[in-house]
Design a protein that fits this description.
Elements (H helix, E strand, L loop, with lengths): L3 H25 L21 H14 L10 H31 L1 E2 L16 H31 L4 H32 L3 E2 H16 L11 H40 L1
Parallel strand pairs: 1-2
Pfam family, one: ABC_trans_CmpB
Keywords: Membrane, Transmembrane, Transmembrane helix
InterPro entries: CmpB_TMEM229
C-alpha cells in the first residue's frame, strides 16, 4: 500500500488530468454539446474530477499485478491487463453513478443516448475509452508517474504543493456538496432525477438572461441562481415529458394508420 502522501498525489494528478481530458472532449467531440461551447465538465468549481483521481489510483495499483497474470506471451498478458483495467474503471464508474442516482437523485453524467447503456451510467463506447486510457497510461504515463511517486519519498518539501491543492479542493468540495444536498432535496420533492448537464445549461441560460453573462467556473455556486435554475429545470423536464407523450401518441396514431392502409 502506498504511503498517504503518494496516494494523495496520485489522486490529485488523476483528477486534474481527467478534467483536462473531459474539458476538450466536451468541446470538440461530445454529441450532446451541439453548440460546441466550452463547458466545465465537473460538478465541482475547480479543474478536477474526483472519478479520474480514483481511476488513476486503480491504474497504478493494477499495473503492479501484470507479473502475476499467468500468461507467457507478453502481448497477450498486457492485453488482458488492459481489459482488467477497463473493467475495473467501468465498475467504478457504475457504482459511483448509481450511488448518486439512488441516494441523491442526481445524474452526474448521462449515457442514455448511447447504444448498450445500463441505466445511462455506463455503456460500451465509454468502456472502450477506458480501455484506450489504460493503454495510454501504461505506454506513456506509468514510467514518469512511478518515478515521481518514488521521488516523493526523498523530497518531502513537495508535500507543500499537495497540501495546497487539497486545501483548495476541500473548500470547493464542501461548497459543492452543500449545493448537491439542495439539489437532492429538490429532486426528492418533485420526484425527478436531476441531470447535472441539463441543470448546468439552465443555470447558464438563467445567468445570461439576468446578468448578461455566464460564469464558467461557478456553475452551481450561487443559491439564488441555483434556486431559480432548478425551477426552470423542473419546467423543462415537464415540457420534455409532455413532448415525449405527444410524440408517442403521434407515433401510435401513424402506426395504426399504416396498418389500416396495408389492410
Amino acid at each position: 500500500m502506498l504511503p498517504f502522501i503518494q496516494t494523495a498525489y496520485l489522486f490529485a494528478l488523476g483528477s486534474m488530468i481527467g478534467w483536462v481530458l473531459e474539458f476538450f472532449y466536451r468541446k470538440f467531440f461530445d454529441p450532446v454539446n451541439v453548440e460546441r461551447k466550452w463547458l466545465n465538465p465537473g460538478f465541482l468549481t475547480g479543474p478536477y474530477l474526483p472519478l479520474y483521481g480514483f481511476a488513476l489510483l486503480l491504474l497504478f495499483w493494477l499495473r503492479q499485478i501484470e507479473q502475476f497474470i499467468p500468461i507467457d506471451d507478453n502481448y497477450t498478458r498486457k492485453a488482458v491487463l488492459f481489459v482488467i483495467m477497463a473493467a475495473c474503471i467501468t465498475a467504478l464508474e457504475y457504482f459511483t453513478g448509481l450511488i448518486f442516482i439512488v441516494k441523491l437523485k442526481i445524474m452526474l453524467w448521462d449515457y442514455t443516448q448511447f447504444w448498450g447503456n445500463i441505466k445511462g451510467i455506463i455503456c460500451p463506447m465509454y468502456s472502450f475509452f477506458w480501455l484506450l486510457l489504460s493503454l495510454g497510461y501504461c505506454l506513456f504515463l506509468d514510467p514518469p508517474i512511478t518515478r515521481t511517486v518514488d521521488m516523493l519519498i526523498n523530497n518531502l518539501q513537495f508535500t507543500f504543493f499537495v497540501g495546497l491543492y487539497y486545501g483548495v479542493f476541500l473548500i470547493d468540495l464542501a461548497i459543492s456538496l452543500n449545493n448537491m444536498v439542495n439539489i437532492a432535496e429538490f429532486a426528492r420533492e418533485h420526484n425527478i432525477i436531476v441531470k447535472i448537464d441539463e441543470l448546468r445549461a439552465q443555470i447558464v441560460s438563467f445567468r445570461e438572461k439576468t446578468l448578461g453573462r455566464a460564469h464558467f467556473f461557478v456553475p452551481l455556486r450561487f443559491s439564488d441562481t441555483l434556486h431559480n435554475s432548478l425551477e426552470r429545470y423542473r419546467e423543462f423536464r415537464e415540457k420534455l415529458s409532455v413532448g415525449n407523450i405527444r410524440e408517442n401518441i403521434k407515433g401510435n396514431i401513424r402506426e395504426n394508420i399504416d396498418k389500416i392502409k396495408r389492410k
